[in-house]
Amino acid sequence: VKTIVEKAEQAIEEARAMKAEVLKERAALQTPSFNEGSAIDYRFIENELANKRTVTLNGAGSVSFVSTLFKAALQKSKIASRVRVNYGASSSTVIPVLAPRPAVPSEQAEGATGISADNTAALSGKTIQPKAFFSELPISYEALKMGAANLEAELPQIFRDAFVTAMDNGIVAGGSSAAIKGIFTTVPAGNKIACGAAGLPKLEDMVNLAERLNDYDLDSPVIIVSPTVHAALLAETGSVYDFIKEELARNKSILGVEVIVTGKAPSTLTAGSVIAWGGSLSNYCVGIAADLTIEPIRVPGSTVTHYQAVMAMGGTPVVDGNMFALKTV
Fold it and tell me: Which of 3, 6, 170, 210 is the least buried, fewest Cβ under 10 Å from its Cβ?
């Protein structure tokens, strides 16, 4: 009888151990892992979305996951791929800024004294305070259940691309007080070069801007214009700057400065409007708070599921004085 009892107790202990192991494995599948680029990150999200549950990724552990998620999309963007991007578990980023540049070093005689101090350069902090950005994607029952694509697995990348597009829009066309401040609206008044004549800028104006950028020794400077401006420059005839037009057409550059053409750039001809921007995009910093929420919303009386994504972003030029522009007259 004792042997039978002992065997029964041993079997019970083995069953408990097996149950504990099963529960452990189940918990591992239902808990998000933030290992960089690991498959379980996406498996967790896919499982939660497939079961119409809200996915929330936040805290310090999600930083590597969010940065990995955005890295590929940022590289495909001709604007956002060139800016500095900071990821943080919190929603605030402080950037050390040396602004403006230190004075040009000057020669001094041996034993020189009474050298005047540089009263303009100062190291300070510039704060990025990201704000919430919202995106919504309505998906029908048929697309979710009967489509060939696994939409739940694709949703993180779909929303990622949407947020990168919003980042591009903000960097170029954002207002001066927006969460993502626009480069066209934050150029200092003293750095705006007036065009030589009313209307769209001419090749001569673009040469003036490119020379200013080259003279300022910026890191990989670029000029950003709208397709309207680009087309007008290529259509210009009878100019002594035809060799510049050929460089623009062949190499998309002016005096070696790369020209980026984007529909996000303004083409307003009102007097005083910034029509072309020049500077280094590495002088721009974007802060992304590693808080990403994807929430499925069911609407009564509808077969459509609305997937809503919310995350916080912000951006600003680091040193405004390192940006230049052409303005209309």
Answer: 3
Which residues touch 275 (CB under 8 Å, ≥6 apart)?
A: 195, 200, 201, 225, 226, 229, 266, 267, 268, 269, 325, 326, 327, 328
What is the DSSP pairing of strand 274-279 with strand 55-57? unpaired
> Which residues have C-beta within 8 Å of that of residue 66, sequence separation ≥ 6?
57, 87, 288, 290, 292
3-class secondary structure, 81: helix
DSSP assigned state of 48: H
Locus of tokens 């004085």 = 321
- For the chain, the first-to-last Cα distance in angstroms comes to 105
pTM: 0.74
CA distance 317 to 293: 27
Q: How far, in Å, CA of 266 to CA of 226, rounded? A: 6
Q: In this predicted model, what pLDDT tens digit does every residue of 277-324 receive, in sequence order? A: 999 999 998 888 767 788 888 888 988 988 888 888 899 998 888 899
